[in-house]
Write a structure and sequence with these properties.
It is built from 19 helices and 13 strands. It is of the alpha/beta class. Helix 4 crosses helix 10, helix 7 packs across helix 9 and helix 12 crosses helix 17. The model has no long low-confidence stretch (mean pLDDT 92).
Length: 482
């Protein structure tokens, strides 16, 4: 769900490769509907929801585990995006993930890499979308440097080419604005760090096609070719009058903004030539989904990196993880929510990352990091869920009541909270002493061996305090010995 177009791609997997079976595209121009107060106007919302209904019909009957829906820049910034997403999910029939800019960049590179030769050179990949532009340096299938800037062909065309007028001053202002943004990250993308420049977006493909058909520079994008195109657009004078060989009609309204951004990219990063590949975000999303199903989940790698970065006590994290997983399986019942179980495991493994900041209220620091850090592989919704589970593993339950908007998170919070309490001594726990955790009519019941309770009076006293915490939010937590 991009800021310019919404795209649906259905692929078949053969020997770890994706072969497209069906592809749909609708030019929704979501970014063009952003008003000054950062809300989407009603006409754009109606257009987007109509597209969701049509895509929903095509996806009907597919296994939810085989479908992934992602939203990009405009849905990251629009104030009324949450309400729109609720209705869009109803029409589409599948959950929508809003991905962060750097996660978008990682997925773009993954898609591009699968359509490029498997050579070892480092590549600079640039994707000019409707609302943002992503910059990546990577080699083979791994992205090394990722950034996302608020430069989009839709937003720049609307902002600088007001009422469709194409003037020298408009191009100058647009190019300068783009260069000012790119200058902030230029030091991360010196020409010494990459050997090949690659464009992946609709803007890049349009520029390549125009230059090839008009014999300006065949098969590649060059600065000289773009300057010739800029002169041709200036002669047109108005977006409505654009008539250039090789330009599709649906791309004309956003071409001036996209061209200005690409010129700024070439000048700010000293790019001389750029090839273009068709692989981009939608391909990266599919390959990432395939990786999750083949036990190559980027989210697992991210959690491992976070444990290392924040110097997590690995032994303690694993003790809590094993017990939290066991408790969640007990309380969740059948059918087991496998996605929530993964979140419980991830949350348990990083619940102490806040200790690297301070011991006092470390759970709040942990939650803040998980909510705000760049976490490759995770959507914003997933990060929020992880942060909520981690925030709830200790502290005042009265405050937690205000934090949990998704009721399905409560069993996950309970499982991690009890696991952390059991493991408070930071020693191995006799897990067989825990005989059960189940739902009751008014809450939950935890059953523990009487002999274990008698041998661990400090933990037993802590459980009694925990019962009071849950009582304060209207949930009955019982401790039973057997």
């Amino acid at each position: 769900m991009g800021s310019n177009s919404f795209r649906l791609q259905i692929s078949r997997v053969v020997d770890d490769q994706l072969y497209t079976l069906d592809s749909l595209k609708e030019t929704v121009r979501l970014g063009g509907g952003l008003q000054e107060d950062k809300s989407l106007d009603e006409e754009t919302l109606a257009r987007a929801l109509g597209c969701m209904a049509r895509f929903g019909e095509r996806l009907r009957g597919l296994d939810p585990k085989q479908v992934r829906v992602v939203g990009t820049n405009t849905l990251r910034v629009a104030k009324n995006a949450p309400a729109f997403i609720v209705e869009a999910e109803r029409l589409l029939g599948f959950p929508i993930e809003i991905i962060a800019g750097r996660e978008e960049a990682r997925l773009i590179y993954l898609g591009a890499a699968h359509t490029l030769p498997a050579t070892k050179e480092r590549r600079l990949v640039v994707d000019i979308g409707g609302g943002s532009t992503e910059f990546i340096i990577g080699s083979q299938y791994k992205a090394h440097v990722t950034e996302s800037l608020p430069l989009g062909c839709v937003t720049f065309s609307k902002r600088f080419f007001t009422d469709g007028k194409i003037t020298k001053s408009a191009f100058r202002d647009a190019e300068l604005a783009a260069r000012n943004e790119i200058q902030r990250i230029a030091h991360q993308y010196p020409v010494s760090e990459w050997q090949l420049a690659v464009g992946t977006s609709g803007t890049a493909r349009s520029l390549r096609d125009i230059m090839e058909i008009n014999d300006w520079f065949g098969g590649e994008i060059t600065l000289a070719g773009m300057k010739r195109l800029r002169e041709a657009l200036l002669r047109c004078g108005d977006i409505r009058n654009i008539a250039i060989n090789g330009l599709k009609s649906d791309r004309a309204p956003v071409l001036p903004g996209g061209l200005a951004i690409m010129i700024a990219v070439f000048e700010a990063l000293a790019v001389e030539r750029m090839i273009v590949t068709d692989g981009a975000l939608r391909d990266g999303v599919l390959y990432d989904l395939l990786g999750r199903q083949r036990e190559k989940d980027m989210r697992d790698s991210t959690i491992t990196q976070f444990k290392r970065r924040y110097h997590v006590d690995t032994a303690q994290a694993e003790r809590v993880t094993q017990l939290a997983e066991r408790l969640y399986r007990m309380v969740a019942g059948e059918p087991l929510d496998e996605d929530m179980l993964k979140r419980v495991v991830w949350a348990a493994r990083v619940h102490e990352i806040g200790l690297s900041i301070a011991h006092t209220a470390y759970h709040k620091h942990s939650a803040y990091i998980l909510n705000n850090a760049d976490m490759p592989g995770f959507s914003r919704r997933e990060q929020s869920a992880l942060a909520t589970i981690v925030l709830g593993h200790r502290g005042d339950m009265g405050k937690m009541l205000r934090e949990v908007s998704d009721e399905t998170l409560w069993p996950a919070v309970l499982a991690l909270r009890l696991a952390a309490l059991f493991c408070r001594s930071r020693n191995p726990v006799e897990v067989d002493a825990i005989h059960g955790l189940r739902r009751t009519m008014n809450g939950y019941a935890l059953t523990v061996g009487k002999s274990w309770l008698a041998a661990n009076p400090l933990t037993t006293a802590a459980f009694k305090q925990e019962i009071g915490q849950w009582r304060d939010i209207g949930v009955a937590l019982e401790l039973r010995g057997d």
